[in-house]
Design a protein that fits this description.
Elements lengths: L8 E4 L3 H13 L4 E4 L2 H11 L3 E5 L7 H11 L4 E6 L4 H9 L4 E4 L4 H20 L16 E2 L2 E2 L3 H14 L5 E4 L6 H10 L8 E5 L5 H9 E2 L11 E2 L1 H4 L4 E5 L6 H13 L1 E2 L8 E2 L3 E6 L3 H6 L5 H7 L2 E4 L9 H17 L5 E2 L1 H9 L5 H15 L4 E2 L19 H4 L2 H5 L7 H8 L4 H15 L4 H8 L3 H15 L1
Length: about 475
């Protein structure tokens, strides 16, 4: 007999035979269960007992299940709602996850999948009850470098990512990470795992683009000895190794179409069949996948299965490129510089002011990975207290930075307010005196965008804000003047 769980479960399922079956499974696992067969009775029971764990069918006779989900979260945002949907309605489950559902189950599902989802929810409820919020440091207070769970940076774009990762980690939903090469997709996947209820289990990464296509199935699902030439012993695949933890499928869009079919079957059944095996085995893994391509474009081009895309693309995260992260490049560079200097026995303590400006203006096409490589190169070949421009690779030779003697470069608003290019910085500031602060901000931003050739991402880098902030402000200005 399993230990009795302290947290009651509200089960909302209008098919009474299924409700009775799920109730039996849950009670056998030690849960107290309250049953509702429509939305009205579900909300009544919820208001009366306020359970923290809810199993919710999305198709109810009197009301849309998503409306019930919203009503529950409006009253208690931390409630863990596991939604139930039919096999042909994955898009409904995706919508529910974006509305804050903890997990989803696709009919038909077995006892193990049901109990696993509910026990994960119960574990998180218990952790939240025991947690001391005052003891949990804010992202910028963790260690010497501002950041979060392996990331470094304090930009608004990354603060949004940190919040998403923190919320997503608490669920068991499949996560689809996109972003340019070198933006930290594996760091993101690792953070999701380390912050989840599966943190004690293994984190198993597999790069679908780095393994030959004819070997990828064996790497993913395993094989038996003698199943093909070179199979000299049995091999456990990544999915079996990750049992109880997280399987990270990097460069998922590189996977062969034939293997995509097998991956889809695995996602639907949680069953794997090693190459050469006659029987399948069940594993319990959470899938996090990533690509540097546009997955929607891959689907349209016929290179990625649409049904697999919708099955994986439950909770999307897009990592911003380094060039859109403002001063994060300086924070990352100085942390890496000190680390590499210690490893190589060098004296470097930071970047010179001129080098900082060059780093801010450089586009970093290879993102953080390129930054790592360039800094390693500098530390190996040079030494000193600070990295100076003379130490930088040739790519920086043509980079331009604003000069303090150029008031129009340093104060772009002066171009709008007074065309005279001969203004000194103090004169440029005096022109702004007496103007409402909102007008100063608008003129400054618009002038910066103009100076950047109309490029909002470039202007955002200069202003150290997220591009979305500038788009939002410009939208508000156009509405006010429309």
């Amino acid at each position: 007999m399993r230990a009795r769980h302290p947290d009651p479960v509200l089960l909302v399922e209008d098919t009474r035979s299924l409700s009775a079956l799920y109730e039996t499974f849950l009670k056998k696992a030690g849960f107290q269960v309250e049953c509702a067969f429509d939305a009205a009775s579900a909300l009544t029971l919820y208001r009366e007992s306020q359970p923290r764990i809810i199993l919710l069918d999305l198709v109810l006779p009197d009301r849309d299940g998503l409306e019930v989900l919203r009503a529950i979260h409006a009253r208690e945002p931390s409630a863990k709602v596991v939604v139930i949907t039919a096999n042909g309605s994955i898009n409904r489950a995706v919508e529910a996850m974006r509305e804050g559902a903890f997990d989803f189950l696709v009919k038909p599902f077995d006892e193990r999948r049901l109990i696993g989802a509910v026990e994960n929810a119960a574990m998180l409820v218990e952790q939240e009850a025991q947690a001391d919020p005052a003891a949990e440091p804010a992202p910028e207070d963790q260690g010497e470098a501002p950041g979060f769970a392996g990331f470094i940076g304090r930009s608004e774009a990354m603060r949004q990512i940190y919040a998403m990762v923190g919320n997503i980690a608490r669920s068991t939903a499949t996560v689809f990470i996109t972003g340019e090469s070198g933006t930290g997709k594996e760091v993101c996947a690792q953070a999701i795992h380390e912050l989840s209820v599966r943190r004690a289990g293994p984190f198993v990464p597999i790069n679908c683009g780095a393994i030959p296509r004819d070997l990828l199935e064996s790497e993913l699902f395993g094989h038996l000895r003698g199943s093909f030439t070179g199979a000299v012993s049995d091999k456990r695949g990544a999915a079996a190794v990750a049992d109880g933890g997280t399987l990270f499928l990097d460069e998922i869009c590189e996977m062969d179409l034939a293997l995509q079919t097998k991956l889809l079957r695995f996602l639907q059944t949680s069953m794997i069949q090693p190459v050469g095996a006659t029987e399948a085995q069940k594993v319990d893994v959470r899938i996090v996948c990533a690509t540097n391509r546009d997955p929607g474009a891959e689907v349209r081009a016929g290179r990625f299965r649409e049904d697999l895309y919708y099955r994986l693309h439950v909770v999307p995260i897009h990592l911003p490129p380094l060039r859109d992260r403002g001063s994060d490049v300086i924070d990352i560079a100085e942390v890496l510089l000190r680390r590499f200097a210690e490893e190589e026995g060098r004296r470097f303590r930071g970047l010179s002011d001129h080098t900082r400006a060059l780093f801010r203006s450089y586009p970093w096409p290879g993102n953080v990975r390129e930054l790592q490589n360039k800094l390693r190169n500098i530390v190996v070949l040079h030494d000193g207290d600070h990295v100076t421009p003379e130490m930088l690779p040739s790519e920086f030779a043509g980079a331009a930075i604003p000069r303090a003697s150029d008031p129009v470069s340093m104060f772009p608003a002066a171009r709008q307010v007074a065309p005279a290019a001969a203004l000194d910085p103090e004169a440029a500031l005096r022109i702004l005196v007496g103007m409402p602060l909102a007008d100063v901000e608008r003129r400054f931003i618009e002038a910066t965008i103009e100076q950047c050739g109309g490029s909002i991402p470039k202007a955002a880098r200069l202003l150290d804000v997220s591009p979305s902030t500038l788009y939002r402000k410009r939208g508000a200005w156009s509405q006010n003047t429309g």
